[in-house]
What does this fold into?
Amino acid sequence: MNAYSIFLGPFAGIMAVDFYLVRKGLIDVHALYSPHGRYRYTGGVNWRAAVALLVSVPPNMPGLVHAINPKVPIGGAQHIFDFGWIFGFVVASGVYYVCSALVPPHDTMISPAQMVDIKAVIDGVEGGSDGRDTPELKMGEKGSAGVAVKEV
It folds into this structure.
């Protein structure tokens, strides 16, 4: 089970930094589920997250190998693996934040004014409790379903 932690720690760190520090809690939820929405990124990959994973996971790999086969000598790398989740969380968080600060993801950011517009459109589109009388959603600017985003 400890092997999963070398991947889950970085994932948690990237998600926490992205939500709380980079986007400050402003997320276009409908665009998260749109295959061509604002969060599509280049080829479907957020390069900032990929860089953070490539920096935070490999230092734990020798410890993972040693956990699978204790006969493989790895020296002091075992100690990094012992606290792999925390190591991955901290390193991936730091790398992701630095990448996002150096090259901000402007195309996926939402301002508070845009968030008000998104909520207004969603409130106007939502129908009954079973969803049958919900009007068909149309693609809006930036590719987010049912949301016409105004530039501020």
